């Protein structure tokens, strides 16, 4: 019938969407490409419904093609006779292995229907975790920064695979960026770290991203003026005049 590509979100099982959970709870078989995705999926899938796939740790493209053909050959009959799911951390269509599977199924098993259930991507989860607001109209670029790389140019970047934080940091700062890092955000496994100090992240950890913003960007949303004391005074008067309720003021302040 169908293969569902299910996005699990960044790693906490309670950030799997309701739709994703429904698919996981009802699929005949659920394939997991890695240890971490498996540990999230098993919050909703009994061990006996977990499917086995073998993925080599290689950059050799021939070997990768062989592995994806083998994976598609295993999954296709299960998806034709019933419902199968393949999970990925984050969203299945953002820097993910799911694209390889979809293309391989399309090429060699065109009878299999493929549907995607979106997940909370690290591309969006970082904003809340790192306290960053990407305001309307701002441009944001996604890059990789593995092994000390430091792409430059765009005003704002989310950098994935930041495996050598000190080296990447030095280059970005030299190029005029302010940088903040997030490691294992919303993940049950391992320690979550949010910091702008590269010394806290000298150990390599694949689940590390960075947000880099050029120093001195000028664009400011209209309500940014409330950050000055004068403007806050005017705003406080306006709230009291409207409802005279101090708790309403406090709860509005809590909504950041
Ligand atoms: C191959 S990409 C997968 C992205 C995923 N499909 C998504 O939508 O979030 C892996 C990279 O995403 C970032 N990443 C994914 N989940 C993360 C998390 N929970 N905390 C920090 N970084 C994360 C890391 O930079 C990691 O190297």
UniProtKB/TrEMBL annotation:
Pfam family, one: TP_methylase
Location of region: Disordered: 219-256
UniProt feature, compositional bias: Low complexity: 244-256
Keywords of the record: Cobalamin biosynthesis, Methyltransferase, Transferase
Pathway stated in the Swiss-Prot or TrEMBL entry: Cofactor biosynthesis; adenosylcobalamin biosynthesis
EC number: 2.1.1.151
InterPro entries to which the protein is assigned, alphabetical: 4pyrrol_Mease, 4pyrrol_Methylase_sf, 4pyrrole_Mease_sub1, CobI/CbiL, Uropor_MeTrfase_CS
Protein name stated in the entry: Cobalt-factor II C(20)-methyltransferase
């Amino acid at each position: 019938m169908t293969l569902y590509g299910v996005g699990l979100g960044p790693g906490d099982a309670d950030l799997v969407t309701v739709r994703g959970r429904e698919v996981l709870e009802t699929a005949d078989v659920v394939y997991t490409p890695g240890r971490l995705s498996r540990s999230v999926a098993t919050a909703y899938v009994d061990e006996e419904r977990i499917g086995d796939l073998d993925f080599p740790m290689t950059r050799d493209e021939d070997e990768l093609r062989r592995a994806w053909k083998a994976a598609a050959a295993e999954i296709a009959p299960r998806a034709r006779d019933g419902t199968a799911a393949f999970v990925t951390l984050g969203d299945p269509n953002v820097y993910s292995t799911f694209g390889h599977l979809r293309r391989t199924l399309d090429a060699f098993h065109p009878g299999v229907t493929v549907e995607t259930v979106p997940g909370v991507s690290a591309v969006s989860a970082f904003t809340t975790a790192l306290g960053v607001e990407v305001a309307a109209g701002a441009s944001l670029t996604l890059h990789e920064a593995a092994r000390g790389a430091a792409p430059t140019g765009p005003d704002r970047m989310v950098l994935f695979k930041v495996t050598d934080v000190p080296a990447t940091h030095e280059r970005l700062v030299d190029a005029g960026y302010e940088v903040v890092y997030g490691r294992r955000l919303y993940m049950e496994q391992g320690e979550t770290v949010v910091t702008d100090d590269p010394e806290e992240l000298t150990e390599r950890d694949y689940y590390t991203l960075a947000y880099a913003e050029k120093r001195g960007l000028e664009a400011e949303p209209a309500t940014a003026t409330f950050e000055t004391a004068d403007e806050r005074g005017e705003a406080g008067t306006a709230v009291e005049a409207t409802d005279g309720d101090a708790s309403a003021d406090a709860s509005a302040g809590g909504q950041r």
